[in-house]
Design brief:
With 171 residues, this protein is α+β, with helices and mostly antiparallel strands. The chain is built from two helices and ten strands. Strands 1, 2, 3, 4, 5, 6, 7, 8, 9 and 10 form a ten-stranded mixed β-sheet that branches. Bound molecules: copper (II) ion.
Length: 171
């Protein structure tokens, strides 16, 4: 058959279409690696590795709000724990202790830091012990941004990442 310019253009279109549909799965994967596009961006998330038979662990991260409206982290969930609570560390009579909070504010065009010694997500009644090198799935629910998922690598708690949770029990 004679390849007219019109047929030629159609062949190119069909080829382009086929290529773009092939490219879809790779694109999806990339999206997942970027941890989803959301008004809230999550950076440097990590979950504390626990010694055997620990009841609890904690998750830490930076929350960035790219909108002009203040948001709040309302709750969190993880398949490795029966419950997750939002906590902050308070110093009372030279003792550090944790206290549940209703929400963690993320200011407009600002950020909130969840870190040892400050705000954190407490993973309570672990179903499995988070081990260094693994990744833990977390779902965070924000007042405005809604649900945001993150895969947080598990890390050993180093010297700077300490003392908040079980101090009361140990001493
Ligand atoms: Cu806590």
């Amino acid at each position: 058959m004679r390849v007219t310019p019109v047929v030629y253009v159609m062949i190119i279109l069909v080829a382009a279409l086929a290529l773009s549909s092939c490219a879809q799965p790779a694109k999806m994967e990339k999206m997942e690696q970027m941890e989803a596009q959301s008004d809230i961006e999550i950076q440097s998330a990590w979950v504390r590795a626990t010694p055997p038979n620990s009841k609890n662990s904690a998750a830490y991260m930076m929350l960035h709000n790219h909108t002009d409206q203040a948001d709040r982290l309302l709750s969190a969930q993880s398949p490795i724990a029966h419950a997750a609570e939002l906590h902050m560390v308070v110093k009372k009579d030279e003792m550090m202790s944790m206290q549940p909070v209703d929400s963690i504010p993320v200011p407009a065009q600002g950020s909130a830091m969840l870190k040892p010694g400050g705000y954190h997500i407490m993973l309570i009644n672990l179903k499995q012990q988070p081990k260094a090198g693994e990744k833990v799935h977390l779902t965070l629910t924000f007042e405005r941004a809604g649900g945001v998922m993150v895969m947080a690598p598990v890390q050993e708690s180093g010297s700077t990442m300490m003392k908040h949770d079980h101090i009361k029990k140990k001493k």
